[in-house]
Specification:
The protein contains ten helices and no strands. By secondary structure, the protein is mostly helical. The protein has one domain (about 50-269). α5 packs parallel to α7 (about 165-195) and α6 crosses α7. The termini are far apart. About 30% of the residues are buried. Mean pLDDT is about 85; it is low at about 5-20 and about 30-35.
Length: about 270
Amino acid sequence: MKQPTSPPPSRQSSYQFDRNVSPLPPPITHSSTCLSAAAKRYKYLRRVIRFSQMDFEFALWQMVYLFIAPQKVYRDFQYRKQTKSQFARDDPAFLVLLSGWIVVSSACFAVVLGLSPGGFLQFLLYVFAVDTLLVGAVIATALWLVSNRYLRHSPDGQQDVEWAFSFDVHLNAFFPSLVILHVVQILLYNVLLASDNFFSHLFGNTLWALSIGYYIYITFLGYSALPFLKNTRVFLYPLTLLAITFVAVTTSGVNLSRTLMDFYRYRVL
């Protein structure tokens, strides 16, 4: 009796690919061209000022999923690796939208702090250049070095973590923290957080714990999505320290929301 034959490899791989496809809307364009790291950076930076070439709808969906199902965002990163030979984004639309959020949240801070137009611009420059890019580059570089040196387990010895991917992970993790601390917190500051009572301290510190916890968890999801890394659960270890710090700070009567406002006021004024 003739034995049934398995489907051709191409059809089999196509079936497996369809099952793992990201639930987010597909990007506008796809390309399988493999570029050098320098060429990828040049292409990325060149597209920053070309809004017509950016997929803002897809980037917006990623921002939504970072709150409701962040693990699904990294399925697109795996998909990009299969189609474009890189995990990192090649479309700056996410960074552009994030910059828009920074402008809006900084304007809210300027209103609460009573900043002049010049003070607002100075505050915006601090948040974007220092808090987002500089601090993000330091964190991304540190995790990039740790991942490649201690967590990489590639059978062929050729796969490694891209620095651009590490920075993308930072941007993914930074966005929910930005919304929680620079939008939700500032809108509730005069109503709930500025008072000197235990409830204000508890609520303000909870917002901080939630934002930092989001950052740690989304960072863990990013590196655990790379198949050639092992023991990525180490990125979750800071959650224990976060819980202990939250209890200690809250019981000691410190309000981190008021501390943040005092810090920003001192830095700008």
